[in-house]
Design a protein that fits this description.
The complex is a heterodimer of chains A (about 290) and B (about 240).
Chain A: H1 2-28, H2 35-51, H3 57-80, H4 89-112, E1 128-131, E2 134-137, H5 138-160, H6 162-172, H7 174-179, H8 184-210, H9 218-232, H10 237-257, H11 263-277
Antiparallel strand pairs in A: 1-2
Chain B: E1 8-19, E2 22-33, E3 37-41, H1 48-56, E4 63-68, E5 71-72, H2 78-84, E6 86-89, H3 101-109, H4 118-128, H5 130-134, H6 145-158, E7 163-167, H7 175-190, E8 195-199, H8 202-208, E9 211-216, E10 219-225, H9 226-231, H10 233-239
Parallel strand pairs in B: 3-8, 3-9, 6-7, 7-8
Antiparallel strand pairs in B: 1-2, 1-4, 4-5, 9-10
Classes of the chains: A mainly alpha (about 290), B alpha/beta (about 240).
Amino acid sequence: MQQAVNGLFLGSIYALFALGYTLVFGVLDILNLAHAAVFMLASFVALFLVGRSGLHILVAFPLAVLFAGLLGVVLERVAFRPLRARADSNISGLISSIAMATVFEALALWIWGPNVSRFPFGTIPERQFQVAGAVISRLQLTIVAVAVAIFLLLTWLVTRTRLGREVRAVAESPRAARILGVDVDRVIAWSFFISSALGGAAGVLFGLAFNAIQPDMGRGVELKGLAVIILGGMGSMPGAVVAGFALGLTEVFVVAHLGASWRDAISFAGLFLILVLRPRGLFGAAALREA
Amino acid sequence: MSDAPALPLLEIEDLHVAYGHVEAVRGVSLSVPEGSIVTLIGPNGAGKTSILSALAGLHRPRAGTVRLGGADVTGLPAHRAVAAGLSLVPEGRAILGRMTVEENLVLAGERRQPPGALLAAIDEQCRRFPILGERRGQLAGSLSGGQQQMLAFARALLARPRILLLDEPSMGLSPILVGQIFEMVEQIHREGATILLVEQNARLALSVAHHAYVLEHGKLVLSGPARELAEDPRVQAAYLGGGH
């Protein structure tokens, strides 16, 4: 039970991160490898807002998420849009996003240094609850609650709003969307905003959860995020959520029963196995582009 | 069909369209009078679809001007071309198959219908094409070819176009369905629509159009009233299988 709680808690962060990752992939067929750097920068910005400016975390969190979203728009303008007309834009975009990730990391290193930074004590007041034999901290509860709220908001956005319809239309066929009068460039910019805001939210929550923020904190999450979106089916949003929780739970159970050194080995072996059995991932059948 | 030509709604002057070094359209000028059906016929690869793509903003023309109702609409990006009143029913129909029929219709109309009028406009199209009403909540990918063509028409009409651009509406459909689709084209025209029709099926196109242009290798080689062109021996030899 305790492991299930911890797994859900870790999984919610993976799921948030992977949702942003998979959203851009679904719309553009491009992996944005600067996603993890946005995750890291948002965490630092939240830390800065709480530590230096003395803002309450409830104010700092949305501001850091907004910052991450805007960073995503900049990223799209600088690293992806100029390359979009190229026949090899999938690969060239991948490379330029790696460049942007390096720039972001260097920036963080320059401003905050290589050491681990921490949120000031009491950013989220400590309190623990006993639920069905498991100990849940207020921090864990807050993080899961925030993640679930974001999932619901995103589901509403994608299924019920005009922007959501347009995002899905562009993801399925940019040409068909254009013919219907959708401003595809605008939709792509919004997709990057939402994607990076999700990555940023994951970053702040991750920073709060482990209270260790450093310029290379995105590296581990980046690979896991990639694993999650492949497992969920490239471009599938429900897939990213389910796979994110699955990875979080697996990791926690492996650490508890086999030891921490087995964590990534088992997780990635499991990923490999599932892909052998279901090459398109759990939810991948509907996620392939048609035009 | 009336022969009194109204003011030209669409005017194309010296249009050039190129893909890399390949010039698909080499200096085409034509006009479409308000309220008429004009057809553009010609063999595969003559540049017909390229002209429509340029008009709809899917591909930027290399040179030339396009005017709609007197306003310059040359090289507008697609979303602004739709906003200006150019609505394309593309070759292959470009249905969003992973979205429902209703979502396809909403997407087509929500930017172009006045506030509050969208649902009524969708209902109107569902009365015109009852099958769309019956299958409103189903995925558009589950529709048959003919039904998808109806959806493509309904979507184009929901954008409240000033001119409808139809690209090969008969393609891939059985003769019975082709007949239905062309009846629909005439019906939409009777309601006041202006139509530029691109077709490989020249006989059918000439039977519904008022005026026709023949395109070969990116250039216009013939033009005239559709009925006269249908009698023209050159057209008969090349496109109508040598006579009736």
